[in-house]
Amino acid sequence: MARCRRAGRRQPARRGAPVVRDLCPARYRAGHRERVHPSDVDHFPAQQPARRGRGPCHLAPSCRKAYRLCRPVCGHHRFIFGRSACRCRRDGFDRADISSPVRLSAPLPKKVRPRPYLEDHGENPLVTDALYDLTGKRVYVAGHRGMVGSAIVRRLQREGCEILTADRAVDLREQAPVRDWFAANRPDAVFLAAARVGGIDANDRYPAQFLYDNLMIEANVIDAAAQFGTSRLLFLGSSCIYPRMAPQPIVEDALLTGPLEPTNEWYAIAKIAGIKLCQAYRREYDCDFISAMPTNLYGPGDNFDLATSHVMPALIRKAHEAKLAGDAALPVWGSGKPLREFLHVDDMADACVFLMRHYSGESHVNVGYGEDISIADLARTVAKAVGFAGDIAFDATKPDGTPRKLMDSSLLRGMGWRPSVDLETGIAGAYAHFLEGGARTVSLSQ
């Protein structure tokens, strides 16, 4: 007898049937790159008549979902941890060749080199159709007034769903009003984009606010979503969750492998807790909650307050004011040597909707542009877009932060998503939005 870890029950091992020792179907679908011990998954029959109300392997519902994804293509419900999810794909069959379930005469290989989940979008049948359709769903965007939340709202307008938002009276840091709102509105899906955010200076001056506020927001929203039957939730983190000296480009597995950057560790710890909370609710309560880790974002609706903003909006505002004042130089914090990756917020919103529709897994997913740029070159690019012709003056007495942060987004790109806004075009659009009066200012107080 063999046991499926996700199913929590034993399955009959039929004599002479092929043996698959790599991964439970539900865990393959979830995107786990860890190998499961052979005692956890020993046998999935090559073919067995379906029974009413139960999958062919007598799996729990979470496992049957993965089975149904593959069966319409080839009839097989054996999954391996390799380039393709099913043997028929590797053997050259396609949908037209398979009209009925097929029984393989040879067993699958027992040892397959692990690869990232959905590495080859063109060959993997698991991403041919969306896992979750947003059409007609009630979708709550937490933090809809912020840069990321407002971009997600704009993107969702093309999905045919009902967009839900909460007014300012609902303080997400307080559990009671959050639960009352969820009880009254019962959203089907949630994008958790609400957060206390800021740059190096704000993180250094207000560590308690960054840690406490973000912990409370994510804990209250995630718990309420689980309590009131939300089907899907996407939690938005940050690239600062990774160690200061993480190998570049940074893969998802780099989480918790080294010390954090001291200048933003309070925010990073809160975001790591949010990732782990989603994973914990998935394991204990079978909640389909996922996490996305964006790189540095910019675009319409950004915060241009110099005391609390990130590097991109700060440079845009400084360059604009220097141009108006006729200054000879643009002041820039640090040495200008650190390397950073930037992604337009509209691309981030598109990636969030893509993940909500196509991804279900415990591992968080990096969302990046794929290229980085030094702060010095970024300052020159911003100055050119703004029209400032002076010099760049670096203040070496100010902190640089992490030396380099470039995300490895191969997991997301393997699913078929790509960014569409290049850096120069995005900066020009952000500056135009700033001139139109669309800039936000966020102040923090002790």
From TrEMBL:
The residues listed in the UniProt record as binding substrate, with positions renumbered to this chain, are K318, W333, R340, D400
| MF-aspect GO terms | GDP-L-fucose synthase activity; isomerase activity; NADP+ binding
The record's listing under HAMAP family reads: GDP_fucose_synth (MF_00956)
Q: Domain NAD-dependent epimerase/dehydratase spans what residues?
A: 139-368
* Active site, renumbered: Y267 (proton donor/acceptor)
What is the protein name stated in its UniProt record?
GDP-L-fucose synthase
- Per the record, where is site Important for catalytic activity? S238, C240
Keywords, comma-separated and alphabetical: Isomerase, Multifunctional enzyme, NADP, Oxidoreductase
Q: What is the lineage of its organism?
A: Bacteria, Pseudomonadati, Pseudomonadota, Alphaproteobacteria, Sphingomonadales
Family listed = Belongs to the NAD(P)-dependent epimerase/dehydratase family. Fucose synthase subfamily.
Identify the metabolic or biological route this protein is part of: Nucleotide-sugar biosynthesis; GDP-L-fucose biosynthesis via de novo pathway; GDP-L-fucose from GDP-alpha-D-mannose: step 2/2
Entry's SUPFAM superfamilies? NAD(P)-binding Rossmann-fold domains
Q: Does the keyword Oxidoreductase apply?
A: yes
Gene that encodes it? fcl
